[in-house]
Amino acid sequence: MITELEVFDAVRRGYVEFESASNSEIIDYFAELNEGSMIGHASHVKGILFEQEYVDALAVQGVEAEIFEATNNPVSDITVFDEGDLVTELQLKATDSASYITAAMEENPEVGFVVTSEIAAGMGNDLVVDSGIENAALDQAVGDALNPVSPFSVIGWVLGLPL
């Protein structure tokens, strides 16, 4: 289960201005955003959270991996090592859009792609790696942490439901 603390860690990693902000300061900032802006921010935080969760999952399996320091590293998001030697770089995509994944794969065919479980099930395991992490769980965690007063979380923002 993804914790609120992990979501706030993702926010702090993705936004320099929040590196030392309290959770309540972060919540207050996001509460002031309009719906369109919030959707973009929630997607950004979700992507960072996905990277963190996947690297943590690999560590549990005994696989050494690191997230790039910059959240906007070109082409790949994490590096995987074997006894300190670089094995591969991977791009992670936290989305429910197969067409978005396909376009990214066409743009960067030299890199492997790790996706959410829902997308992996729909695309087939030979094209992408299933992260074992559900897109819906990422959406729920981000929404619950950044908009705790709303029962609708990110899904409500996307659908335009009242918060």
Features:
5-stranded mixed β-sheet, 163 residues, globular, alpha/beta
Structural class: alpha/beta
Low-confidence parts: 151-155
Q: Let me know the average pLDDT.
A: 90
Encode the helix/strand succession as letters.
HHHEEEHEHEHH
| Portion in beta strands | 5-15%
| Strand neighbour order, sheet with most strands | 1-2-3-4-5
Radius of gyration, in Å, reads 16 Å
Report the helical percentage.
40-55%
Q: Describe the global form.
A: globular
Largest sheet: 5 strands, mixed
Q: N-to-C terminal Cα separation, in Å? A: 24 Å
* Total of DSSP H or I helical runs spanning 4+ residues: 7
Tell me the count of domains.
1
Count of beta strands:
5
Short description:
The protein is an alpha/beta fold. The protein has one domain (4-159). Helix content is 50%, strand content 15%.
Mind explaining what this structure looks like?
The chain has helices spanning 4-14, 23-31, 35-60, 98-107, 117-123, 135-146, 153-159, and strands at 64-67, 78-82, 85-93, 112-115, 129-130. The protein is built from seven helices and five strands; from the N terminus they run αααβββαβαβαα. 29% of the residues are buried. The longest helix has 26 residues, at 35-60. It has a five-stranded mixed β-sheet with strand order 1-2-3-4-5, with helices on both faces.
Outline the fold blueprint.
Layout: H1 4-14, H2 23-31, H3 35-60, E1 64-67, E2 78-82, E3 85-93, H4 98-107, E4 112-115, H5 117-123, E5 129-130, H6 135-146, H7 153-159
Parallel strand pairs: 3-4, 4-5
Antiparallel strand pairs: 1-2, 2-3
Helix pairs in contact: 1-3, 1-6, 3-6
